[in-house]
Fold this protein.
Amino acid sequence: MPDHARRRRSLLSNLEENVFVAYNLENHDTATLRYLTGFTGEGLLLIHTDETILLTDSRYTEQAQGETDGIRIEETRMWPGKGAAEALDRVGVSPVAFASTRVTARWLETMRDACDVELIARKDPVASVRIVKEASEVASLKRAAVIAEEALGRLVDEIRVGISEKEIALRLEWLIRETDGAEQIAFESNVSSGPNTSLNHYSPFRHPRTLQTGDLLLFDFGACVDGYRSDITRTFSVGTATPEAKEIYDLVLRANLAAIERVKAGMSGVETDAIARELIVDGGHGDHFGHGLGHGIGLEVHEGPGLSPRSEDTLEPGMVVTVEPGVYLPGRGGVRIEDDVVITADGCEVITSFPKDRLIEVG
């Protein structure tokens, strides 16, 4: 079981302030509360050196008692506003730090009007602590990758010409969810075919297309285990692959393998991104690779560090990132290959293993 008390101490040791406040309303910040307490419901968390207090309402009181340990739980329907202000005043310690990227302007205005403490904006101090994963977190991420890939492996044999993207996505979700240990899918799956594969964040549920012979078929998907999310992409050909599809696939695969081979602790996100990007530029498709090489994964599917031309991050052992180069030809289709890797001192450990050595033909 994670040592939540140690995590809270680590957070405060990285802050100038002795108090930190965070809240989760309508699932806008489940990661912070879950990481620091184990609680997965809605409420406000107040951490200071002497005590940790969780404010929540009657919908979640029993759940909070079962999910947390060593913190005080107070039940109040007013926790998003007046109750939070009263708790801050009662603690009587100022200033209080909060994550500026996690709160609304409305909440901040309410707190400043209703309580006497000074509120200090910090970008996202909990994300800074979460960026390097503990062994238990890596274990959950590995299990999430296994569950997702096993589901895809079972699904591949069911793919046929004429089946819709929506049918495939729903079947994939079912296969993931029915597996022991899976909480849910990591995010809405991108199952795209033909020209839709050039759309990076395509949804198969709005206007689903049916598979046709010669299509590219892209899966961007993952599973969630203990709150931790895998993020994997594999691209297939429906029937015999076209020469253009094979050419693009081989280029993206070389970029993926090159980045995985060379990435290690001490490299910047910019340097890591450049390994793959230079190969794609040299292959004549620099204008067709518009996103960064990768991002961190954990309790959120997109977190630090970033691997991109604009990244300000430096990789450290224990960080877990995606490596996902791609080439996208508008109106024609795209290829992306994405793996999850754990950064080590002299390289990385790849925790995804679904075959990618060639453009696999299905259907």
